[in-house]
Amino acid sequence: MTHSVNRRDFLTGVAGTALAYAIDAPAQTASGPRTNITVRIDRDLAVLDPAARTGPWDGNVIRCIQQRLMKQKPNSSELELDAAADVKQVSPTVIEFRLKPGQMFTDGFGEMTADDVKFSFERIGLPAKDAVATYKNDWLYLTGVEVKSKYEGRIVLSQPRANLFDVVIGDVSGCIVSKKAVEQRGADIATKPVGSGPYQLVSLERQKGATLRRNPAYTGRKPYYEEIAIRFISDARTTDLALRSGELDFAVLSPSTADPLRSVPGLTVNEQPSIAYVWLGMNVEKAPFTDVRVRQAVRLALDVDQMLTAGYNGKAPRLNTLLPPQILGHWREAPVYKRNVAEAKSLLAAAGVSNLKVKLLILNQAAYQNMALVARALLADVGITVEVDSQEGGTYWNSGKGDVGKNIDMFIVRFNGKHDPNFIMQWFVSKQIGEWNWQRWNSPEFDALFAQSAGELDAAKRRQEVVDAQRLMDKSAAFVWLTNEANTLVYRNWMKPAGVPGWIDWQYDDFGATS
Amino acid sequence: MLARGSPRLEEAIRYLGSRLVTTVLIVIGAMLLLFTLTSVVPGDPATTLFGPQATPELSRRFITEMGLDQPLPTRLWRFFANVARGNLGVDVISGRPVAKLIGEVLPYTLILTFSALGLAALIGVPLGIYAATHRGSVLDNILAFTSVAFIAVPSFVIAIFLLLIFATWLDWLPVLGASRTGALGDEFKRMILPTLALALGWIGFIGRLIRTSMLEVMGEPYIRTSRAYGLSQRIVTYKYALKNACIPTITLLGLGIGRLLGNAVLVEIVFARPGLGRLIYNAISERNYPIVQGASLVVVVLFVAVNLIVDLSYSAIDPRIRHDTAKPGAE
Fold first, then answer.
1. Which of A42, A178, B43, B199 could connect to A105 by a Cys-Cys bridge, CB 3.0–4.6 Å?
2. Are the Cβ atoms of B272 and A238 closer than 8 angstroms?
């Protein structure tokens, strides 16, 4: 049989070959253990300088590049030595440290010394007049770092701080940068960081993300993966598809987004309780919420479990007090309020309130919108008409500020937490009215307990003070605690991610593989 | 060639001058509108970005550095004075020049937008010609149906379907729209789906427009005359009819740049691809005004520059347009 090739056949053949080449399958087949992984972040990396970082997404990368005196053990909030050979609290206000010798900064910036530690901590806690230190409050009460020798120094505080190790020394504000590099690179240090940590930055591109490569000079525990690509993907649907297609190896998703991925072969879906906290708050300065009976009525009219089913597909644990169970001072015996329409109505009647119309302020995200709709229906049963006021981020986060905050009726809000009770409690002191205390709740007893527990170094005493503070919050009825949320980790079966419990702080440098 | 001092040269210069003045006024007007909007939008930048970590002093500092405490005319004057010196401002969050941030993402947007437009023209024009020359055929009807369908469906919906089909089910193309390594082959592969998502609606648009224009032109007396002279159908269609039928399409392409840039934001988000639209979108969410202002200026300039080129090009195709502008009331 003969077959002649005409012009049309030829062109079709060429186009077909070109197309076949162009659309060559993207997935790489893993032969043997993988040495590189790709992880997703949902906010763009902005500033990789501990002093000017914008949030946990920056912090997670910074902690890989920079060393701290102490760092968290893998999958734990417990600290272990990192850059320091020794750290000692010699008095409530003095901490002495001794660095390990021979810890080298990348890009030829020399060996880490106590001078670098002094520079790093003081530029955040005691910044120069024209310098930015977004997390200045982390180093509250710092009076200075005294350098005793090349490797030794003392951190001196004006008052004791119970959470100094967990929230500051072991976290991003405790990262040690090279003084010489910061002075030499100026503003560029935000995008060209110099560190001595387990990874070094290979590339950082706006809207794309970053690539980290193992730092051969790091003297600590060697990271498992040679390279980690951190991809900025804002859209949850794209993340889902990228996980399915094999382009992404790890992502943290909301429970409802992660659910469909449970049936995908090769992926593990693992739920972890979070330490973020979500609640419905009431403005105690605005009538009729000035009357505690109205607040109690709202609390009894709501059904938290129903709201959580609507907001999180029932996958988020219920919170009955401010502090989640993982945090020191969690009030285990906190009352679990059950919906009681009759009692709510009688409380409203006793307060002389009828046909109440209120606004419920929320952020325009699905979980809050769903919970707000359920709250509206539940409150309607006791005669409260709710108008849901859904706002985008910029407007929403400014709603409680200054005098504008006086106009709020009720709101649903979510704050990120840390493994420290005082970090979580700080937004409810009276000083925060007009800032982040949107309830405008003013309790001198709470303020006193907060101050006491912040400086209390005895863990048992501190726990009791924190529980007492939560009792006061409960008594005020200004808060309806909803959930501490859940983070759903989705990753390849061969992978073993690591993060500080609560999964706001990820430990890329401790990511590993299943044996 | 036009001789110096000739009336045609003077006319061309006058036309170009009037277009340039209009262009500058459009840019100033757009920026005035943008500055007015930024002054009424609620939310201070530090609070929006840092949440509870934003201290009052940090808020004040960001407001001062962004010039938000200044009256609107002062802000606008400072902005244009800086632009005249080639300075688009500084991102107060990262401390990096806005021009540099724009420079990093602008190529992604330009490549995506012009590839989509090019692809749309490459496929839409022949389809439109075919539909016009085979009016009422089965293929014409199929093209009419699919064109309207693609025009009606938003590009981000098309994007999601393309991802489902080509990236998930068939596993032919990647999900993420930008290469990690920057390798040319990889970048090309990752551009196919975003380009298609953006272009599909425009293929329909251009196809329908060319078809309608061609049918209108084909009925003109000069086409009949050309046929009477015995010119082949191919020459009549491609040399005479298509040239005139292209004028509304060129206008549409110019205006289409603005719409494409708008649609590109959604496509960039779906494919996690860097771009100017996504830069502005994120900056608005964070109330990062120096980036919003600098990047918006670039978009406006891009848009008016393309439209200026379009205006000039079709006044070259149809000289009556130039005459009409130069002599008001002339027929």
1. A178
2. yes
Tokens 């988020």 found at: A316
Which single residue is written with the structure tokens 């193309």? B173
A234 interfaces chain B, CB cutoff of 8 Å: yes
pLDDT in tens, A268-319: 999 888 999 999 999 999 999 999 999 999 999 999 999 999 998 888 999 9
> Measuring CA to CA, how many Å separate A170 from each of A81, A116, A165, A194, A463?
9, 16, 6, 19, 21
Interface residue B184 vs chain A (CB under 8 A): no
Q: Which two tokens stand for residue B162?
A: 């393309």
Amino acid identity at A297:
A
Minimal Cβ distance to A242: which of B42, B175, B279: B175
pLDDT range class, residue A15, cuts 50, 70, 90: very low
Tens of pLDDT, residue by residue over B113-171, are 989 989 999 999 999 989 988 888 888 888 888 888 888 888 888 999 999 999 988 98
Mean pLDDT of A199-213: 94
Distance of CA A442 to the CA centre of its chain: 27
Instruction: Region of A399 please: left (phi>0), alpha (psi -120 to 50) or beta.
Output: alpha
- For CA atoms A378, A381, A384, A390, the dihedral sign is positive
Q: Rounded to an integer, what distance in angstroms lies between the CA atom of residue A317 and that of residue A338?
A: 16
Do B282 and A44 lie within an 8 Å CB cutoff? yes
Statement: residue B62 has pLDDT above 90: no
In chain A, whose CA is at the least distance from the CA of B53?
A: A135
- CA torsion angle B253 B259 B260 B261 (round to 10): 120
- B139-160 as b/e, with b when 16 or more CB fall inside 10 Å? ebeebeeebeebeeeebbebbb
Inter-chain CB proximity B269 and A26 less than 8 Å? no
Contacts of B122 (CB under 8 A, 6+ apart): none
ipTM of this complex prediction, to 2 decimal places: 0.80
Find out whether B253 and B263 touch, Cβ atoms under 8 Å.
Answer: no
Specify the 3-state DSSP secondary structure of A391. Answer: strand
Q: Please, are residues B117 and B202 in contact by the beta-carbon 8 Å criterion?
A: yes
Of B61, B94, B175, the CB nearest to A247: B175
| pLDDT value at A14 more than 70 | no
In this predicted model, what pLDDT tens digit does every residue of A377-386 receive, in sequence order?
A: 999 999 999 9
Asked whether the beta carbons of B155 and B198 are under 8 A apart, the reply is: yes
Task: Give the span between the Cα atoms of A111 and A104, in whole angstroms.
Answer: 4
Phi-psi region of A302 (alpha: psi -120 to 50; beta: other; left: phi over 0): beta
pLDDT of residue A21: 41
Q: Which residues have CB under 8 Å from A344's CB, separation 6+?
A: A296, A297, A298, A300, A301, A382
pLDDT at B330: 38
The minimal CB distance from A25 to the residues B168, B172, B278 is found for: B172
pLDDT digits (tens, 9 = 90+) for B184-195: 888 899 999 999
Extract the tokens encoding B175: 């999900």
* Residue B181 vs residue A339, higher pLDDT: A339
Based on its alpha-carbon atoms, the radius of gyration of chain A, rounded to whole angstroms, reads: 26
Distance (Å, whole) CA A122 – CA A139 = 8
Which residues of chain A lie closer than 8 angstroms to B61, CB-CB? 132
Cβ atoms B159, B266 nearer than 8 A: yes
Kindly report the nearest CA distance between residue A393 and chain B, in angstroms.
Answer: 7
Which of A4-8, A347-351, B80-84 is least confident? A4-8
Here the tokens at position A220 are: 């600590």
pLDDT on residue A142? 96
Is B180 at the interface with chain A, CB within 8 A?
yes
Contacts of A135 in chain B (CB under 8 A): 53
Distance, in Å, from the CA atom of A374 to the CA atom of A303, rounded to the nearest integer, reads 9
Pair of tokens at residue A330: 């969690």
CB A195 within 8 A of CB A210: no
